[in-house]
Design goal:
106 residues, elongated
């Protein structure tokens, strides 16, 4: 059986590269619209319509899949990235260590 840590490592790698690809794809869409704005005319219209009607749906679907992989990774690795209680616990531990480092006055 495959170890849980290996699965988490693979999912984390796939998620990282997926986010990278999706960000690049979003940047390409921006530069495509910018090129259409500069070109103007009928060519610009067809380029903008292509980006909007054909390119964006693919990027959105890929983004959704990548996000799902990231959420599955968080679930399997038992991460609580958005938990308030975890942040409070870390803050309490940091406060306790700061109090221990301070010299006693008195």
């Amino acid at each position: 059986m495959v170890k849980k840590s290996k699965i988490v490592e693979v999912l984390n790698t796939v998620f990282g590269w997926g986010i990278y690809v999706v960000l690049i794809a979003g940047g390409l869409a921006f530069f495509g619209f910018l090129a259409a704005l500069i070109i103007g005319g009928e060519s610009a219209t067809s380029l903008a319509v292509f980006i909007h009607k054909q390119y964006f749906p693919i990027v959105i679907k890929v983004s959704s899949i990548v996000i799902m992989i990231g959420l599955i990774n968080m679930y399997i690795s038992n991460q609580h990235a958005l938990s308030i209680t975890l942040d409070k616990q870390e803050a309490d531990e940091e406060l306790a260590s700061i109090k221990q480092e301070q010299p006693k006055v008195g």
